[in-house]
Amino acid sequence: MPKPPVPTSRYWKLHRQLARLNTFLFRRTRGKVGGSFLGGAPVLLLDHVGRRSGQARTSPLIYLDDSPRLVVVASKGGVDAHPAWFHNLMAMAATEVELPGGERRRVRPRVAEGAERARLWERAVAIYPAYANYATYTERKIPVVVLEPGA
């Protein structure tokens, strides 16, 4: 089966613009708008710091509530590279996320492995089936990131 084409730079520019709009709407409405993605997949806002720029960044991400933990999938980085937010997040000991309703949580990231990853991946694909499609045309194993409650 042929692989789908890799997104173009114009696609990524639009993706970044939509992410900024989503973040604005999410914060303005406390998650009433922008708090879910296609098909109702829940969205949180991840705060991180650019490793090269040192600038604060916010990324809207689909998440699973695996109470008390949250789970995100590092999907959109490219065929052979993890997304920048993933690298930024993993370089930090802790950060904050914002959930719908304005709730903020301090979290520590770690990458799920083995049986835990398989279980969480299946749950993520169930709420957002596009992850399974994306996995068919990337050269990398897509990380499943567990956000543990932080101090």
From TrEMBL:
It comes from the Bacteria. It catalyses: oxidized coenzyme F420-(gamma-L-Glu)(n) + a quinol + H(+) = reduced coenzyme F420-(gamma-L-Glu)(n) + a quinone. It holds the Pfam family F420H2_quin_red. PANTHER family: DEAZAFLAVIN-DEPENDENT NITROREDUCTASE (PTHR39428:SF3), F420H(2)-DEPENDENT QUINONE REDUCTASE RV1261C (PTHR39428). Belongs to the F420H(2)-dependent quinone reductase family. This is Deazaflavin-dependent oxidoreductase (Nitroreductase family). It comes from Amycolatopsis magusensis. The lineage of its organism: Bacteria, Bacillati, Actinomycetota, Actinomycetes, Pseudonocardiales.
